[in-house]
Amino acid sequence: MKVSGMAGHLIRRLNQTSTQVFSLRMQMAGYDLTPVQFAALDTVCSSPGLDQAAIAAQIAYDRATIGGVIDRLEQKGLVTRKVNERDRRARAVTATETGQRVYQDVFEIVEGFQPEILSGLSAEEQKQFLRLAAKALAFNADTSPDAEA
Amino acid sequence: MKVSGMAGHLIRRLNQTSTQVFSLRMQMAGYDLTPVQFAALDTVCSSPGLDQAAIAAQIAYDRATIGGVIDRLEQKGLVTRKVNERDRRARAVTATETGQRVYQDVFEIVEGFQPEILSGLSAEEQKQFLRLAAKALAFNADTSPDAEA
DNA sequence: TGGTTATAGTAAGTATAGATACTATTAATT
DNA sequence: AATTAATAGTATCTATACTTACTATAACCA
After folding, report:
1. Which of A103, A106, B41, B66 is 20 to 30 A distant from A25 in Cα terms?
2. What's the CA–C1' distance between A67 and D12, in Å?
3. Which residue, among A64, A109, A139, A66, has the nearest Cα to B13 in the 3D structure?
4. Domain range for B111
5. Using one digit for the tens of pLDDT, what is the confidence trace for A29-41?
6. Does A144 reside within a domain?
7. Residues on chain A touching B21 (C-beta within 8 angstroms)
8. How long is the CA B10 to C1' C23 vector, in angstroms?
């Protein structure tokens, strides 16, 4: 078996293609957002006031990375952070008005270019692929970083 | 459509699982190698004397990243670099004896844990997935970083 | 041959992506 | 209530994973 045909290699290449398509499309649309920044913004818009640890858990990241991501979203004026008065350890993150507007626009764009990531496959094959990918992940849903043992 | 069901998100999660399995298995076997370090070592062992740019092209990376990767492989005593006398810009990279020994051992291990990356799928589904992943990538084989326009 | 172009490697900078450790706070237990 | 354990966020560190720019060298070509 050659390395280039192994699951790990193929998955890395797919992720590479995915991020390339993402950054190209964002640039074309005039936005400066990375995939993880979009994922975090999506979570914040869907669940306003969530703290960083919960955001990280929701999208399967570690707290340290999400801390930096929220930093940059805040610098761009898309979200704000404020201390949760009922738990002073936590920071409630909320999307600004600009953040909500950007999110709605970008969501449509992101949804629109998903098929491009798998453009080598027919529509039916893409559905198959997504079904298999989701199933492959269903079992290790609890293996995200920061997950308590 | 929710973000968690989109191709980009699923692929990122798969890549995350893949790297987690890789680092866990390497640690269990007592090796200190990352996925890209293994990929580079694989290329060097298969094509001794290749320069860094060619290694990068082979495994779809940019030159800058591979430069650092080769640095670390060299520090670990797995490869050596020497100036190509016919083209003094290029550095011919070769695996040391230790590098070759480590490679042969690690290759077996890496090959062995590939099914674990897709452990949520049956053997037949894994084959399907790998076939679709390879096909999806076949068309954008030329979109790797550093590729000349 | 002289000038342009292209390429190999590196440097610097940004952003993940994560591990580990530390502080501040809260929860749980005795 | 005092101690202990757990958790949220941050800091630090390592390693990708790029982009852009720069230097050195080689290839081209008029």
Report:
1. B66
2. 14
3. A139
4. 3-138
5. 999 999 999 999 9
6. no
7. 8
8. 35
